[in-house]
Amino acid sequence: MRWKGQRKSSNVEYSRGGRVARGGAKMGIGTIVIVMVISFVTGKNPLSLLQMVGGSQQGVTTQQTTNAPKSAYEKELEDFSVTILASTEDAWNAEFKRLGSKYPVPKMKIFSGNVSTACGVNSEATGPFYCPGDQKVYLALSFFNQLKRMGAPGDFAQAYVIAHEVGHHIQNVTGTEKKMRQMQQRDPRNAKKYSVMLELQADCYAGVWAALAEKQRKWLEAGDVEEGLQAAASIGDDTLQRNAGRRVDVESFTHGSSKQRIYWLKKGMSTGDISQCDTFNQ
To answer: Which residues fall within 8 angstroms of residue 203, CB to CB, at 6 or more apart?
Structure first.
């Protein structure tokens, strides 16, 4: 992606509890690589997941270096992230205006260590997430290293993750997230099915962003689209379960299979039309 020199968002906050090293996370055990990504796509407590795959709470250590200067690598990741956020602002501002409404821009909080949110306290092991309560996207830069280890390298793969979380913001402000929760309450047996629909729609919205941003910026390069599709494939529920040495259990899916995630990301990218992202009726 030709992202350098593009506009950066000012809707950003920072909370630093540690430094990010190139090519590795600050966690002390190898299983955290898988756990971070599984936590990202399932929303489950990372410490509980560590116990499931043979880790322990004592095995997770964070180096508290709040006052340490940013490395050049951290600075570049931050610049990239706020540039992608700016592109989501421009894309969705234009799309909401086209639809006759105003886009309420979310904030992004880039953090390391632990972070307090309107949705509770989370650690960077949780991975990127969106909190409806404060309308903020929370991003731990160390997740990008884990994404590479899971076979999804490249800047467009990283951008897809951010755009997916912004997709959850759109679901929140348009009322889709609330409706989904109501569906889960009325039909608890299919609660995970509805969760999958919500996540796949966020993937589709990420694809729509990619299409709209490309029209505005012309910044995609050869191989970028493939990076995004590979990222979607790498964090499908079935792929994560296989990589964790578990059998594929469709009933436990919360975000969708690799095939589903690729399909909806591609649909958003090919149409650039938010109305084509109705995963609840397809």
So the answer is: 164, 167, 232, 256, 261, 264, 265, 268
User: What would the pLDDT profile of 183-217 be if each residue is shown by its tens digit?
Assistant: 999 999 999 889 999 999 999 999 999 999 999 99
Question: Under DSSP, is residue 136 helix (H, G, I), strand (E, B) or coil?
Answer: strand
Helix (H) or strand (E) holding 135: none
List all residues 6 or more positions away from 208 whose beta carbon is below 8 Å from its beta carbon: 91, 95, 268, 269, 271, 272, 273, 274, 276, 277
Tally of residues, the chain? 282
Cβ(110)–Cβ(81) below 8 Å: yes
> Which distant-in-sequence residues (6+ apart) come within 8 Å of 78 by Cβ?
70, 110, 141
Q: Is the pLDDT of residue 272 over 50?
A: yes
For the cut 90, the answer to whether the pLDDT of residue 245 exceeds it is no
Q: Please give the distance of CA 74 from its chain centroid, rounded to a whole number.
A: 18
pTM for the whole thing? 0.79
Q: Could you tell me how far CA 276 lies from the centroid of its own chain?
A: 21
> Rounded distance, CA 194 to CA 256, Å?
10
The per-residue pLDDT for 23 is 43
Angle of helix 155-173 versus helix 191-217 axis, rounded to 10: 120
Q: Map out the domains of the chain as residue ranges.
A: 12-281
The pLDDT confidence band at residue 244, using thresholds 50, 70 and 90, is confident
Please check whether residue 222 is in contact with residue 154, taking contact to mean a CB–CB distance below 8 angstroms: no
